[in-house]
Structures are given as structure tokens and as C-alpha cells.
Specification:
With about 120 residues, the chain is an all-alpha fold. The chain has one domain. The protein has six helices and no strands. Helix 3 runs antiparallel to helix 4. The protein is globular. The chain starts with a helix and ends with a helix. It holds the Pfam family DoxX_2.
């Protein structure tokens, strides 16, 4: 199967995996929640996991794929501050962890572009 038809399902799988991880093992994600957000970091972690699962379902279904993929692109932009928070908080951690935190920052760009591509290729 060529990559293009699988691309939405791969994106849905990535979202589903991230959503399950947020719900099953929330502690590491809690630490990435920007402190300026109101409420408990755990609430934000669970909410983002639930959103990722909903987006995964939407991207997986052809009927909702375009809208869900556009929402996914917006979601990836919206969680960027958590990645910045992680990079700031981890600046004194061992080099591999620091590198992983910093490496997440530019990773958002291809994720946003991937979601937009899925939306653009979806049937209206």
C-alpha cells in the first residue's frame, strides 16, 4: 500500500498512542504543563489525552477526516507551549534528556504539516 493512503491511519495511530500514554502514565506529562495554566496539571494531562483519542478517531474515519485533521494541526500548535516548558525545565538534566526536550520543539512543524496534508487530501 502506498504511503499516502496509510498516512491518515498512521497519524491516527500516533494520536491514539499519545492519548493512551497520557491517560495510562500521566505523571511525566504533568511536568510539561505550563505553570501559567489554571487548575491541576493532571487535569490538563487527562484532557489532552482525551482530545488526542477523539482526534485519532476523527482522523481515522474518512467522513470526519478533513475536519479532524485540521483540528489536529491546531492541537499540535496549541501544545507547543508544553514542549517549550519541557525544554526550559529540562535544561539542567543529563545531555540525552536535554537533547530530547529540545528536539521536540522543531518536531511540531512536521506534525502540523502532516496533519494539514491529511486534511488537504481528505475527501470533502
Amino acid at each position: 500500500m502506498p504511503l499516502a493512503p496509510r498516512s491518515p491511519l498512521l497519524l491516527a495511530g500516533l494520536l491514539a498512542g499519545a492519548g493512551v500514554a497520557h491517560l495510562a502514565a500521566p505523571k511525566p506529562f504533568d511536568a510539561t504543563i505550563p505553570r501559567v495554566l489554571p487548575g491541576s496539571p493532571r487535569t490538563w494531562t487527562y484532557a489532552s489525552g482525551a482530545v488526542e483519542l477523539a482526534l485519532a478517531a476523527g482522523v481515522a474515519l474518512p467522513r470526519t477526516r478533513r475536519t479532524a485533521a485540521l483540528a489536529t494541526a491546531a492541537f499540535f500548535v496549541g501544545v507547543f507551549p508544553a514542549n517549550v516548558q519541557m525544554a526550559v525545565d529540562w535544561r539542567r538534566r543529563p545531555a540525552p534528556l536535554r537533547a530530547a526536550a529540545i528536539g521536540r520543539l522543531p518536531l511540531q512543524v512536521p506534525l502540523v504539516l502532516w496533519a494539514r496534508n491529511v486534511a488537504g487530501n481528505a475527501r470533502s
